[in-house]
Amino acid sequence: MADHAKILAAAVGEIHGQARPGQQAMAEAVSDAFDGGVHLLVQAGTGTGKSLGYLTPALARCVETDERVVVATATLALQAQLATKDIPTALDAVEEVTGQRPKAAILKGRTNYACLYRARQGGPLDQDSLIGSDALADAAATSKGDDTSKLGAEVLALREWVEEEAERGGLADRDDAPSHTAKGWAQVSIPTRECLGVANCPFGAECFVEASREEARDAQLVVTNHALLAINAMHGGTALPEHSALIVDEAHELVSRITTAATDELSPSLVDRVARRALTWLDDDLATDFLEQSDALREALDESELTRITEASAPLPYAAAALRDISRKVVSVLGKVTDDPERQQATSAVKEIFEVAGRIASLADADVVWVTHSEIMGRAAYVAPLNVAGLLRNQVFGETTTVLTSATLSLGGSFEPAAASVGLRAVDRIEPEGEPSDEFAWRGIDVGSPFNYAKQGILYVAKRLPPPGRDGMNEETLAEIAQLIWAAGGRTLGLFASRRAAEQAAEYCRRELPKQTILAQGDAQLSELTRRFTAEPETSLFGTMSLWQGVDVPGETCQLVIIDKIPFPRPDDPLMQARKKSVDDAGGNGFMSVAATHAALLLAQGAGRLIRRSEDRGVVAMLDPRLVTARYGSFLKASLPDFWMTTDGDIAVRALRRLRGEE
């Protein structure tokens, strides 16, 4: 194996960094996992430099064996960060040490690339203007034109860009496209289901998706995302090129993102839209039957409770079965002609209705079906897998050596909860020097963090406050929030379990602290709120789950993190409650396995917003006394960074005032 330690040292030197023991230990563990064929869970705390910690042994393996390694990140944004920052640094280091430079490629899902068929054959917006896109865009921007004209300008600009990409042999990646909305992008991209396929598409030879896949097949390091990894697992390994090892970054999000990818939705508006699309090729009777299924589904949804559906005799499964049978007939009729691209795409759309309806109608033990309601979209049915552990065990860990890494993988002081969620069993775990017994053998390692949490941060648990209730925040808790923000002089990130709680706290603090600037999620776009919070240290930002993870605000801007309550799953979350019941029915502890593990992960992520670099100091204030009074509290505390802990509010207030030079 090429010397990964030398490559890591060269990479760290290139960015003028310093050697980090945790990063070195991580690189060594990843290299050993590859050599031994043992799966690895590696917790690497904030500041470890985990990207280089796994990239350098991965690239060393590529050089030595000419095998391919796939890296899967949680989001497209993380993909972009690796592509533009970490991978070029690592490749330079590999070249410096070995004289070789492996190829790296980024691979995304189909809808992230423009579709030439949709862009060139897309419809009436082609005729919106005879002037250039720049002139049309200027006209739309300076006038009070309607949304249609603005969309037309946007789509025309996108289509011109698509042609430029085709001319230069580019990939037409959405991240490189002109500014656009989701509606605009939909005019130049295509859902996976509706793709005609290279052989049938008139522009197959120029296909951007195929070009991106060809680049991936020609690369030794391929960076993708959790969603495409899920698709690869669910469809027999057809989405990713063959690889000898897999690294999953931000692995604490893997189960959630795999679940999302495997979740299907069915709504009356979707059925109506697909039915109208198919009408051209159907006789009157079948067309009428298909259209009427939209109303039948709407009636069934209206009669359903907003909860999990478990009885086959309930209105929803009955309506879904009828829709399944009608859509099967429609697919049969449409599929008789295969040389009409529009008809072929309509067939694919109906097939999706058929499959989702069939999945809902069957009420399989492996699925959870439920009904939701939104003010904008109305009622809809969802179906999701009860558990994705089996899928991951068989289609990921059973196929290739896999490394999972995150800042939060050890929950309650153990790797076993996280391992169990992805299909790795406690009996599969082996000791550091042990030999693997089968393809599911795994190890867990915590390489620590360069931060001294006990000296840099305080965990204040407000033991004297009443436990949170269901009727909003009580006066004592609101007063505690205001006092802490006053002591910190702003500089506060408030993490709340609900939008209602965040708004209630913001309203109270604005009234009690009129000189403080309190921003609340919903006041503006989240990106704008985060920018203001970062730029204005005395500003506070209150929000919900989208702030618990991924917000990186080092320095004096964030010296206080307030968490209003332990983030257990909502009692009306059908999927989480179904998973809890499944564990209970199997003789386990569903509360600890599902609810407490979910809460521990979010708490660790939320508390981790405080210390982002070695100079940071501050307080995490947990306003839910159950962290120290409930039996499960020790499990949750063991999942948090090793802050110095107190239940004395005066200590927290004095510490915050000292940070701003008041004491």
What does this 3D model show about the protein?
Helix content is 48%, strand content 13%. It has 663 residues and is of the alpha/beta class. It folds into four domains: 4-103 and 219-259 and 389-446, 3-Layer(aba) Sandwich (Rossmann fold); 110-209, no CATH class; 264-380, Up-down Bundle (de novo design (two linked rop proteins)); 453-659, P-loop containing nucleotide triphosphate hydrolases (Rossmann fold, 3-Layer(aba) Sandwich). A seven-stranded parallel β-sheet has the order 3-4-2-5-10-1-11, with helices on both faces. The termini are far apart. Its EC number is 5.6.2.3. It catalyses: ATP + H2O = ADP + phosphate + H(+). InterPro entries: ATP-dep_Helicase_C, DEAD/DEAH_box_helicase_dom, DinG/Rad3-like, DNA/RNA_helicase_DEAH_CS, Helic_SF1/SF2_ATP-bd_DinG/Rad3, Helicase_ATP-bd, P-loop_NTPase.
Features:
single chain, 663 residues, alpha/beta, Rossmann fold, de novo design (two linked rop proteins), 27 helices, globular, DNA/RNA_helicase_DEAH_CS, ATP binding, nucleotide-binding
Summed up, what is this model?
With 663 residues, the protein is an alpha/beta fold. The chain has 27 helices and 18 strands.
Topology readout:
Layout: H1 4-14, H2 21-36, E1 39-43, H3 50-65, E2 69-73, H4 76-98, E3 104-106, H5 116-121, H6 133-142, H7 147-168, H8 182-186, H9 208-217, E4 221-225, H10 226-234, E5 245-248, H11 254-261, E6 264-266, H12 268-278, H13 284-303, E7 308-309, H14 315-334, H15 341-362, E8 367-374, E9 378-385, H16 389-397, E10 401-406, H17 416-421, E11 442-446, H18 453-456, E12 457-461, H19 475-488, E13 492-495, H20 499-512, E14 517-520, H21 526-535, E15 539-543, H22 545-548, E16 560-563, H23 574-585, H24 590-607, E17 618-622, H25 626-629, H26 633-637, E18 644-646, H27 649-659
Helix pairs in contact: 1-3, 1-4, 2-3, 3-4, 6-7, 10-11, 12-13, 12-15, 13-14, 14-15, 19-20, 19-27, 23-24
